[in-house]
Every structure is written in C-alpha cells, then in structure tokens.
C-alpha cells in the first residue's frame, strides 16, 4: 500500500509545482514533459515489471522499483534545467511504474476474484490519501520550501516503504522457462518516443518542422507494425497479445487509456489555468484541486465495495461517466461564469464519478487473464493508462498552444510569461488590449477542456460496449 502511495502521489504532487518549475527554468512550452517523461517511463516499466513479477516473484521486483524511485527523486531535486529534470523524472517513472503494477498484481495473486473488488477498494483508500496529499502538499511545499521539496519528501517515505515491504511473503518464482523480450521493448520505445515527440513539436505550429514531424510519425507507425509482429511470435512477449485478443481485456485497457488521458490532463493543466486565468497561488491551486483528487479515491472506494457486494462491474462506469462528461463540458463552457469554489465543486463531482472506472477495469482484466498471467494483466492496465495519460497530456498541451498560436502568436508567447510571473505581465497593457489577450487565453483553455471531454466520451462508449458485466 505504501509503495502505491508513493507512485500515485508523485503523479499529483508535481502538478501544483509546475508553474514554479516553469518560473525557475523557463521553457514553459516544454514543461508538460516533466509529467510526460514520468508517464512514458511508467508505460515502459509496467509490462516489464509485470512479466518479471510473474517470473521472479513480486517482492524482488518491488524492491528494485523502490530503489530506482528513491534515487531518481534525489536526482529530480538536484536538476538544474527542464531537460535534466525530465530525464530524472524518466528514471523515476521506471521505478514508479513497477510499484503500481506490482501492487495491483499482489491483490490478484492473493485474493479470490469475487473479493477483489473490496480489496481494490482498499487500494483506492490509498489513492484517496496519496492523490489528496499530492496537490495540497505540493502547493504548500512549493510555496514555503521551493519546488525541490516535492521530490525530497519521497526519500523518508520510500525508506519506510522498504521496511514495511519486508513483511511481504517471498513466494517462489515460476519454474517456467522465460526469456526477456528485449526486441519487443526496443520496438515499444521506438513507437512511444517518436509519437510523443511529434506531438510536442506540433505545439510550436511551425511549418518548417513538417519534415521532422513526418519522419517521427513514419518511425512510430513502422515501429508499431514491427512491435505487433514481434509480440505475436515471441515465446515470452513483453505485451501479451493473447490477452489483448479477448474483448473484455482490450476494451478494459482502452478504457484505462482514455481515463488516464482525461484525468492526468486535468491534473496537469488545471493548475496552469488557475494560475494564469484566476491568479491563484500554488497553495490556493492545491486546495482548489483537492475535491478532484479526493473524489477519485472516494469514488473508487465506494465502487469497489459495490462490485464485491453485487458482482456487477461495468454498470457503474456506464452511468458514472455520463455525469463526468457533463461536468467537464460544463467546466469548458461555463468556467468564465463560475467562481473558484464553484469550479472546485464541479471538479469534485466529476472526480467522484470518474472513480467508478479503474477498480472495475483492474478486477475485470485480472479475472479474464487467469492466475498465471496476473502480472502481465496488471501490467497491461498500467501500460494502457500510462500510454493514454502520456498522449492525452501531450495532445491537450498541443491544443492549448496551437489554439493560441492560430488566434494570436503574441498571446501564445504571453502565456509562457504569465505562467512564470503571473497575470501581472499584462499590467502595462492598455485595458482594451489586456481584455482581448485574457479572453484569447481563456478560449484556448476552453478548447483544452473540450479535448478532455472528448477523451471522456470515448471512455463512456468503451464502458457501454464491454461484454464483461459481472464477476
């Protein structure tokens, strides 16, 4: 539970520190890579740790993941540029992705299928505390001790987690012959890396970059084709294609991807919106985001109990995501007319019903996969969620900056300055000019929120069409 706390908290604790990091280093158009690099690495790590856990035992791989995570947290605090910080976050994700995958797989390894909903609810309680702790603590630490402290806080918690992990049973590893799919991993990296880099370059909206964009996309598509071919013939595939051929699993994984895209995009860009448009400080942003992060955990906790009690699964996200979609569309269209507390309440409603998704997805995939493939199944969910979160965050960032660049290139440049120094950047402008720029930036954030609504719509369709309705 504590390793899960670390991995989840580290996704949200950085959110309220992003404006301060941008102010320290500049390069605001690249600041989303502080989040994306962690998610990319977690994406790569998830299937690797899942397969290693199946083969060598989960306690061993959890210790490896924890050691990497703690060392990388120290490197993050010592980073002197956005590039170095993103590289350190990449290493941190290699540890955090393993912690999340192993924690989920341990539930499936220990608990019978019908009871897993309840225990997934217990893990959801960890998500409540960690995701709630993240933005509030991130805002407080950033304002009073600097953004470096949001990474240093991981060190004592990580040591405590290592001590508690001594209580985990040292289960015997599998006797089956298994060979690491290094070629599959290399092809996967060649697919994800160029895809995200192409999306990041598209934010600059520069026609001169077209050849580079086309080259990156060709590389990504070619790697994807070769990856699928490799995984179909590999003896021990990194990405278990046999599992993904089952509708209940691939539809659940796709739902996890859309859910990750919507949630992580909101957590990433809402602090920027509150800073630039609403002139909120880091600690104020953390408090305003509290209902969003707490609602996810509370909704997961309640849904887990209901799944165990009724045996029903996708009925909950099928209805819950309707309310989430309505809340996000309301945020996009009515945010100029809502006060900060009203926005915070709306985010809480959205999060409460978004919390109906991940517990159901995990229970469904683990049940459909069977006991021998629990690690691979847990890895596929975390992999899908990380892919969705990475691409979704990059796409929302691209929509935000492209919307401004199309309307007014000056406003796009001013957005970066406002993230670094606040809305007072516009103080020297004439009142009429300042109003125009403020409206253009607000419209760009509206387009970004509508993109999040699109992800939620896709998740809703996937929940409606999943054939696994009961356990």
Observed structural traits:
471 residues; 2 domains; Growth Hormone, Chain: A; 19 helices; mainly alpha
Question: How does this structure look, described?
Answer:
The chain has 471 residues and is mostly helical. It contains 19 helices and no strands. The longest helix has 35 residues. The protein starts with a helix and ends in a 6-residue tail after the last helix. The model has no long low-confidence stretch (mean pLDDT 80).
Note the topology:
Blueprint: H1 2-12, H2 18-25, H3 33-56, H4 58-78, H5 82-110, H6 116-145, H7 149-152, H8 154-164, H9 182-202, H10 210-233, H11 241-244, H12 247-276, H13 282-310, H14 315-334, H15 340-354, H16 358-369, H17 374-407, H18 409-421, H19 431-465
Helix pairs in contact: 1-5, 1-6, 1-8, 2-18, 3-4, 3-5, 3-17, 4-5, 4-8, 5-17, 6-13, 6-16, 9-10, 9-17, 12-13, 12-16, 12-17, 12-19, 13-15, 14-15, 14-19, 16-17, 17-18, 17-19
Compact overview of the structure:
The chain has helices at about 1-10, 20-25, 35-55, 60-80, 80-110, 115-145, 150, 155-165, 180-200, 210-235, 240-245, 245-275, 280-310, 315-335, 340-355, 360-370, 375-405, 410-420, 430-465. The chain has about 475 residues and is mostly helical.
Question: Structural class, judged by helices and strands?
Answer: mainly alpha
What fraction, in percent, of the residue positions are helical? over 70%
Number of helices: 19
Overall average residue pLDDT: 80
From the alpha carbons, calculate the radius of gyration and give it in angstroms. 21 Å
Number of domains: 2
The quaternary structure here is single chain
CATH classification, class level of the largest domain: Mainly Alpha
CATH topology of the largest domain: Growth Hormone, Chain: A
How big a fraction of the residues is strand? Answer: under 5%
Shape: globular
For CATH, the homologous superfamily of the largest domain is named as MFS general substrate transporter like domains
């Amino acid at each position: 539970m504590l390793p899960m706390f670390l991995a989840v908290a580290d996704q949200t604790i950085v959110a309220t520190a992003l404006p301060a990091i941008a102010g320290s280093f500049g390069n605001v158009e690249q600041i989303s890579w502080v989040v994306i690099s962690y998610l990319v690495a977690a994406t790569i790590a998830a299937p690797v740790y899942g397969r290693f856990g199946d083969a060598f035992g989960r306690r061993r791989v959890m210790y490896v993941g924890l050691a990497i995570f703690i060392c990388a947290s120290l490197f993050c605090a010592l980073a002197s540029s956005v590039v170095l910080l993103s590289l350190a976050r990449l290493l941190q994700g290699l540890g955090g992705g393993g912690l999340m995958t192993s924690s989920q797989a341990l539930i499936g390894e220990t608990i019978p299928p019908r009871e897993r909903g309840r225990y997934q609810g217990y893990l959801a309680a960890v998500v409540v505390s960690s995701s709630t702790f993240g933005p509030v603590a991130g805002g407080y630490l950033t304002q009073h001790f600097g953004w470096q402290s949001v990474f240093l806080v991981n060190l004592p918690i990580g040591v405590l987690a290592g001590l508690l992990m001594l209580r985990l049973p040292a289960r015997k590893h599998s006797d089956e012959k298994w060979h690491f799919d290094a070629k599959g991993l290399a092809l996967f990296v060649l697919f994800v890396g160029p895809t995200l880099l192409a999306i990041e370059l598209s934010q600059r909206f520069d026609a001169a970059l077209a050849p580079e964009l086309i080259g990156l996309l060709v590389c990504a598509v070619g790697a994807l084709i070769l990856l699928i071919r490799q995984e179909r013939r590999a003896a021990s595939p990194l990405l278990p294609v046999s599992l993904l051929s089952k509708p209940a699993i691939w539809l659940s994984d796709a739902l996890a991807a859309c859910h990750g895209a919507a949630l992580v995009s909101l957590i990433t860009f809402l602090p920027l919106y509150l800073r630039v448009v609403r002139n909120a400080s880091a600690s104020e942003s953390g408090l305003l985001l509290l209902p969003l992060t707490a609602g996810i955990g509370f909704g997961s906790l309640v849904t887990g109990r209901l799944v165990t009690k009724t045996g029903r699964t996708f009925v909950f996200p099928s209805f819950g995501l309707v309310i989430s979609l309505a809340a996000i569309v309301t945020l996009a269209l009515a945010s100029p007319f809502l006060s900060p507390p009203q926005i915070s309440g709306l985010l809480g409603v959205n999060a409460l019903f978004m919390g109906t998704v991940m517990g159901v997805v995990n229970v469904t995939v683990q049940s459909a996969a069977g006991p021998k493939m629990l690690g691979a199944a847990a890895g596929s969910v975390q992999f899908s969620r990380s892919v969705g979160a990475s691409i979704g965050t990059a796409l929302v960032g691209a929509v935000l900056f492209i919307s401004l660049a199309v309307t007014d290139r000056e406003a796009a440049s001013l957005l970066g300055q406002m993230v670094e120094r606040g809305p007072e950047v516009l103080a020297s402008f004439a009142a009429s000019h300042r109003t125009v720029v403020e409206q253009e930036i607000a419209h760009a954030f509206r387009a970004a929120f509508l993109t999040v609504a699109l992800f939620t719509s896709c998740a809703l369709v996937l929940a409606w069409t999943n054939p696994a309705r009961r356990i």
